[in-house]
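Lecture 7 notes: from sequence to structure.
We start with the chain below.
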Amino acid sequence: MSDKTASPRWHFAGAIATWLIPGAGHLLMGQKGRAAILLASIGMLWLGGFFIGGVSVFDRKGHPVWFMGQMLIAPSVLVEGYHRSLQDPAGQPPRPDDTTGTYQPSYGHIHEQGVLYTSLAGMLNLLAIMDILYRDPADPRHRYLNRTPSPTTAPNNNPSPATQSSGGAT
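Predicted structure tokens for the same chain:
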């Protein structure tokens, strides 16, 4: 089967790896540079939101629409489960004046910024997942492993005009 008639390939392992760790799917496909850029940019955005707002920014019940963006990175689901375990049996976070609480949730603009950063990181990771999930094998831009020079990029066997000797009679 030639490249032009090959069926598209779905890269589920790469998509799952990208969901677990941003850039991991691209690393599996052999794109080390792109993987590093995705890990650094998406990872730092997610970590920035997490450090700004703390575990309380991951709240599935408190803001479910934002959590849909956050859950596009796997660690968000784990942190949200940890956040639920810190709440009291009624499911309420500790009050700001409660000194016996296990953590202090963030409030106001700090909380909103943390939620926004982590949600944006998740949505950017969705783009990375979509990028790695579907690759057309007929497209030469998507061939990463075992690259061989194509005939259009192979060196020309004809000598250049500067190296040719003059063909005149002496």
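Points to note: The beta strands are 9-10, 134-135. The longest strand covers residues 9-10.
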